[in-house]
Records
---
Amino acid sequence: MFDLRVLNKEEIKEVLNMNDVIKIVEEVYRLKAEGGTTVFPLIFHEFEPGAADMDIKSGWLKGYDIFGLKVVSWFGGNEKKGIPALIGIILVLDATTGTPIGILDGAHVTGMRTGASGAIGAKYLARSNSETLLMVGAGHIAAFEIAATLLLFPTVKNVMIHAPLHPEHADRLAASMPDILREEFGITVDRGVGFHAVRDLENAVKDSDIIITATPSKTPLIKKEWVKPGTHFSCVGADMSGKEEIDPEIFADARVFTDDTEQCINVGEIEIPVARGILKREAIAGEIGDVVTGRVTGRESDGQITVFDATGTALLDLLTGKLALDAAAEKEIGTIVKL
Amino acid sequence: MFDLRVLNKEEIKEVLNMNDVIKIVEEVYRLKAEGGTTVFPLIFHEFEPGAADMDIKSGWLKGYDIFGLKVVSWFGGNEKKGIPALIGIILVLDATTGTPIGILDGAHVTGMRTGASGAIGAKYLARSNSETLLMVGAGHIAAFEIAATLLLFPTVKNVMIHAPLHPEHADRLAASMPDILREEFGITVDRGVGFHAVRDLENAVKDSDIIITATPSKTPLIKKEWVKPGTHFSCVGADMSGKEEIDPEIFADARVFTDDTEQCINVGEIEIPVARGILKREAIAGEIGDVVTGRVTGRESDGQITVFDATGTALLDLLTGKLALDAAAEKEIGTIVKL
């Protein structure tokens, strides 16, 4: 029998901080660029089209000797029953013996690694003097994106939040963001950053240096003509075929990076621009790991529009999960079960 | 957060008995034949060819409102380290809300459901007056096959065990089988069944009514000319491309059933006979569930040779796992963790 550590959301919160997760996510991108990882095929099943589905993402991080999976289910009708719609479980195993190492709640790990991803896209592609962040979407992921971006951009002074379907969610998030940063992330922003809910998306886009999109949208929310030169987009919402957040025409002359080019072409923000021929496959500048390792130049000029399409892989969940498990072992946090 | 029950091998042994598992496995075959199940694509990865691999099997049992997966790793070098080579974990989730129900050690569940599978193949296809069982293979699975077959065939008086690579394993298993039945399965065989290790496979085959093969062989062990009319084979060993236990020519005039025809053609005992054209796809009589539901006749005459090719699906692990979780909940066995 094996000792297996089980970490729930509260325990994961105690042991993970965003600065460390940002380092780990960068490390995953670097490893992937260097060929030290394998992403296994995605399993996806709809129990009821548009209402209930599940997916299993899995992979292997050779350099860290771990493999494993994340199973995520989404049941739209859950909220009526007082159950979260999105539920995830991560299983981390030792790739030298096949023994299980730990089981983690997937929701907080997903939030942390996705927040880090969007911000890392900005770190490598946005202008370093960026002052204005526009967060499109005010759901579960939004606070993670804002927290990670504020950590990486001390220059950011103004955070705008736009919620396309439920403007009141943006109001609520903007009002509580300083508390969330302090209480959920242990971050105190003492440089006078303003958080504002915005209803007029067009004017917000025109004023933004960095735009992060994290919505379940299936039609473009942001028009090309609104985008000022030099804007950076991190698109993290599109992770399933048909999802789309920004005008496909933006891709006609943007410098575009992905987290996993094959997966992004299949299910990411670039799915539709590639399918329509607006973005040629060979015009994709590379994966973000190529920029992290310095093999490909990120932004080439201050006026260039850059896009990072982040669809997410199990690799991010597994290494972030391992980071949490190691920290929890040191602090003796979590439940040990004998399996 | 959710209450999740975790069951290790000892706890699973306390709550599962072979008679109930046989019923559950038959129920899975029936459901599958009636279209109440979905098997998701198999994920398979070799870390080191021939030395270390892992697979993820997953699926959905609509009628029982559960879905989930089993991850199994095999690391050949583990035994030197004092770790089992084969390690499995089963995760059962609720298919109406996506919430996790339980996590189970996979080894005992796999043994129980695989033992039940081989015996159910014999129940529906072997002659009902069968007296002699030949078990080919004396590894982890053998005792499960023997236990389940003895439960279903009160007529069986003679059990021969052959271990192709390590004859001493067959000696050991034959000597300890009465104790194993009593201690591991709670079965007392008081009808004078004899357990014999046999080295001469040819003569053993000639004497057998039911032959169950559960080896990792990649070349046929049993020749066609040894097989007497009326013999039944349950082949449970071949579950990966290239594995093969019996002469492909046996399939030329046998009545053949599968547990999942697509999967068997890809990775089962029929892979090679189908690839070579010895067994035509359309000559496969059906899936075992078709016999369980009465839609297809099993054995057609006393002299016919019958084969059941059982590759195993996650459906078996999930419903057997659910049976164990329900029994454990009733008896308050296992560890509850909050995830």
---
Amino acid sequence: MEINIRKRVLEANETQADKNRAFFKEQNVFVLNMMSSPGSGKTQLLCKSLTKLMPNIRVGVIVGDICTRNDADRLEVTRAKVTQINTDQFGGDCHLAANHILASAKDIGCEDLDLLIVENIGNLVCPAEFDIGEDARAVVLSVTEGEDKPLKYPLMFRVADVAILNKIDLLPFLDFDAKLVVDNMLQVHPRLPVFEMSAQTGQGLEPWLEWLKIKVFTKQEGEG
Amino acid sequence: MEINIRKRVLEANETQADKNRAFFKEQNVFVLNMMSSPGSGKTQLLCKSLTKLMPNIRVGVIVGDICTRNDADRLEVTRAKVTQINTDQFGGDCHLAANHILASAKDIGCEDLDLLIVENIGNLVCPAEFDIGEDARAVVLSVTEGEDKPLKYPLMFRVADVAILNKIDLLPFLDFDAKLVVDNMLQVHPRLPVFEMSAQTGQGLEPWLEWLKIKVFTKQEGEG
């Protein structure tokens, strides 16, 4: 029964995601869906990235959490346009779905944005199943989470267009094999681009920002 | 629609959880449901705990993962009875539900066990919603995950009977306030017992094991 119910939910989501995609195309904004476990450092990574990207690239952020607007408050310091979705009003949903996104995107106003980032709810499982009409998906994994995670949560790494291995400043204090985790990512998703970095220290941030800028410009030129 | 569907799924789960509870009572085995984000250190914590508990306390483990039997392989070294559930055969479920548990519990054989531990799928959201007929719930949070997690994922901390703050050996290398995270846990769940430890070094393991032993003996005496 549960599998059939899930199928219906995912079909309804896909219909809404197509509508979102049409809206984002019309607005000529590149949409990145950023996903990870709780505590992998998504918000810090975004704070650092936005500071570097703005104002040349005009960024908006939709932040998803079950409760609190902590992350939105942290991101607003960058002067990006930020809006928070709390899913406790939708029964505590464990992911952002397509139907959460469109109203927030309209609310934030996409007409003067180049890039809209959706910081999804901290969960390495469910968000991977829900298309929100995005142009690209990023998964963030931190080096404290263990090398086996790409093999244990393969869907997330399979649907990702880019992976970030965060908190590499902690490597000297951990029994963690960075080459092994990258090999495991590539085993489930061959040729996945992987950026190793520390959002805390800023090490390795630039190649990731270059990748993101190229994606944004390519969409704008393709439709300009 | 999604909320109604969820309600039906949870009701069906509750019915099965009651059946599990009756079975566990009949077998006189204490059942602990252990939950956390991916990579918080559940498996290492269990490996260390089982080595100390056995053979005086006879332990079995049901390990849930979407894919792989890595964790079961690691736990078998302790000589506990271990069985792995992979939810990829159930559509990649993001949590263990009551209907996953009974067959595995019968398969592992509970009649010669004092303690059955269910290592749930790494996810700080969904497993909290699914009663599996357990006697107690433990949540593990590691110090690399950020102090705000109890406020952002309150249901997990609200349903927990005990919390473990793991990886305290990393505190000297992090900008992390251990007092603040405990305060946040107590804000969502007053009087929640919290054990601070490092499963890696063994620091702080004993008080947690004492807590667990008392729980197991109390159930056995109550029903002996």
---
Amino acid sequence: MDENKVLNPGHGIPDIVVGRLPHYLRALQHMALEGRRLTSSQELSERLGISAAQIRKDLSLFGEFGKQGTGYQIDFLLDQLRQILKVNQVWDIVLVGAGDIGSAIARYQGFENRGFRVTMIFDSNPAIIGNQVGAFIVQDSAGIVASIQSAQIRIAMLAVPAANAQEVSDQLVEAGIKAILNYAPISLNVPEDVHVQYIDPVIHLQRMTYYLD
Amino acid sequence: MDENKVLNPGHGIPDIVVGRLPHYLRALQHMALEGRRLTSSQELSERLGISAAQIRKDLSLFGEFGKQGTGYQIDFLLDQLRQILKVNQVWDIVLVGAGDIGSAIARYQGFENRGFRVTMIFDSNPAIIGNQVGAFIVQDSAGIVASIQSAQIRIAMLAVPAANAQEVSDQLVEAGIKAILNYAPISLNVPEDVHVQYIDPVIHLQRMTYYLD
């Protein structure tokens, strides 16, 4: 799991810090939508539940973004964070699995303006192939490696049953995918240069029940 | 965000450790399903991409679960982790939002045997109220506080648009909810005794694009 690396040797920035940057970016985007121009580590702290000192320390690893007394210019900090996270471009995403979760992802409007767009969706179920899901026609997984290679896509979202996830992951890696967001509730084995993040609601729920009486 | 607290003062176990326990539990459940009886920190390490030393250290905070040379008994460690995470019981969940994501959650089979079951689903859209989604009839959000209180539910999953999320969250807190898994792409303000975890695919994707060339 990426979240457990302490340091990413190629970059020198702790992965735990990298993991907080998208939260800063999202909060700043909300502020910009509210028409705001300036913010402070204190305000970000209140919105995010991360200490103001931590926020200042995290951001200082990348440069001098704020001025003492005046805080951060929202537009400037947004630009900088988009560059750091490389979402000052739009990344194409291949989605595998057109069941309930895959279909919800295909119709999700929340990728817009945040650096991503789904461009293809695949499934291996003959009953689903050819169906329209959101703006997409579900394609046959048999052609997935060739399609990804020809479109040079680097990022995949995986919404297949746990029993198929490793096999599909192997195909994605073969096709040149370097980042996988995995919704299947199982850990994937991938080469070291492929990044995997996991979305499993039960993992998040169990992390909270620990604290309940 | 829970993930950024360094220590949880009421328990003394770092939250980052608590966050890894559900991953250990999930891996052990897969091994048990495979009919396995013994495992080692080394094998868990390979499955999870967490160092064996870290796994041993994490588990040692809760007791003596393994023996040097023989490793961990899977059934025993499963029992212990379920107790620690309090999923040796089944928690009822209220689901708010019966759109694409909420419907996918309502139909999700992956909660079974992992400590949770969805028992109610609410929406405020008159066109959706009364519909059947999975095994549930969508109820009118107007009755949400009374229903939660009467069923004494402590955990909610929030799958409403970002613009409504804070308002719904306030109702959930009023009703006695102590843990919220939020799918809306916005940070929630909640009292200190309410836990929030976030599922926002873009946050995970942006964390990976940082590392892509």
---
Amino acid sequence: MSLSEPPVNADGEWEIDERALEAIALGAGVLGTGGGGSPYLGWLRVRRQLRLGRRVAVVRLDDLDPDALVIPTSGIGAPTVGIEKIERGTECLSAVEAIEDLLGRAAAAVMTDEIGGANALEPMLVACHKGIPVVDADGMGRAFPEVQMTSFFIYGLEPYPTALCDEKGNKVLFPRADSAEWLERAARAVTIQMGCHAGMAGPPMSANRAQEVAIPGTVRRAWRLGRAVLEARSGRTDPIAALLDAGPGVALFVGKIVDVDRRTTEGFAKGSVALEGLDSSAGDRCVIEFQNENLVCRVNDEVRATVPDLICVIESETGTPVSTEELRYGSRVTVVCLGAPAELKTDEALDVVGPRAFGLEADYRPL
Amino acid sequence: MSLSEPPVNADGEWEIDERALEAIALGAGVLGTGGGGSPYLGWLRVRRQLRLGRRVAVVRLDDLDPDALVIPTSGIGAPTVGIEKIERGTECLSAVEAIEDLLGRAAAAVMTDEIGGANALEPMLVACHKGIPVVDADGMGRAFPEVQMTSFFIYGLEPYPTALCDEKGNKVLFPRADSAEWLERAARAVTIQMGCHAGMAGPPMSANRAQEVAIPGTVRRAWRLGRAVLEARSGRTDPIAALLDAGPGVALFVGKIVDVDRRTTEGFAKGSVALEGLDSSAGDRCVIEFQNENLVCRVNDEVRATVPDLICVIESETGTPVSTEELRYGSRVTVVCLGAPAELKTDEALDVVGPRAFGLEADYRPL
């Protein structure tokens, strides 16, 4: 029986070892809900740093001084490009340092904007290099495709300053932006000129402000999900059951992929996947629509779950999350739904990340 | 008989009065060679500042301390948009101040990147507000469509830092850019998100460095051209003859516009204008191809002039320059060619601003 809380030292620091890192990477893939990019390369990079003797400590926001400077950092771009155009590994570090230079002040901690997918690992790499901790919080509690879809902006953080850096040394600062939507448009336009993948940092905030605008405990959530699957694998028990228990979550459908309709359009991977039922779902049909992330799950044409709840396609046998770019005919998968964090379920949040914000004709009904 | 040099005070400063301003605005239109945007609104804005008692002084680079900080500033965007989306008038000022903030140092003078068209006036507006002089030099000696086409970059100035500001308060800094071409692409992408028009400033340079990379005397050239036309108008003499004398330049063709083929594509106004000969050109046909600016002039299918020489379409009766967006059937115009500054005729310059750089199958032959 495993503990549901990770071990912390007297300062409240949770030191990440290789085993915890593997669990976080796997759990981040689940929280990616089909998008967010693969955590695989980031996992290898951070593991290499650990093996070189560097350290990643995760702290809670309460363990920081209220005035401590927290700088969020994440990769921005098309996940499909990230697979072929391998990061140099210093993009986010350069972006964080650009913000530090602008403020004339060093960061006390870094944080991811997006715990789902590759961005769970990005701040850890920065933390290794700078010797500062990673905050156990993020701005999405999952993955979303656009910058304005973070709780930071939904709950009123000013959308500046931010920085973008690429692997060639190009650096762009946004010291002032009229709105988070404008920042998304301008940062996306610059990212395209950076080769569709860049490191982003900012807006900086105090630990105190982060308490108001960030979603806490999401690194631990990734760890719990990943660890449940890893333990089930080594104990030869059912990884899906372990995942549902750790989520907590429900299985919406068990089946086999029979059709994938996916196109890259307007900078997104858009489309749908169709599944034919097996076992408990035999005779039923499930269709999931996605825009990078899975947006809505219908079983026999009836809506079973929508954003912001987490619709995750998981390999039934191994518990491995399947991203939208990995969906392929014949895979046996379980569609798992995990509840969204409370911060994404308020009226102001649903305006930005609810089903209608993605053009769906459906109201959000919590899991 | 007018003087060919403007009056300067003991400090070498040439104080711009309303009459000189009008001449500079008209001459800048000629130097726009069809592009660069209309100087009209900028002229009205600076004139208003003069009437409010503010001052514009033009100085030569030699009159500045060699270490004096010179910040180039200009508008960037589509001239066709600038006509309908009126500037707030503080865009370039904000961009210059963003560079000052970044350097922690105040500008000693401003300079335009592009003497041809609207950008001749932009630094004057900044100068009024900041109480600093405008340098009698620029980076093009005319107008060109892209950022990398300045003598600054052709002669090795590092393409950073630069700043972009819009009328809504959005601000973007480029503290480091891999190349001037990348800066052009990224700045253009941001400008589009700023509504296709923005104020740009940078890269900053010392007066000493400006001596190496800028084209001197271009504000005086605009003034001489404009003054020649204004004096011809008031003396009821031939404005074209006056312009050719002041240029100096040659008349390539006298005629009437019989066809205009103009489309807005890839962010440029591309196309051609055809003229039927009158007077000394009777029986001949002239075709000018343009990409914002006039690129090549053919008479009876024979190349008569190409970039970087200045191909200017001028109203025969009034001496008013006609921009590519103002070309219309029936206008009686004279095609005037003025020689390009020596700095644009070197091999390294022709690689960037010669006919082949614009996709023309022709070698440059100086006027």
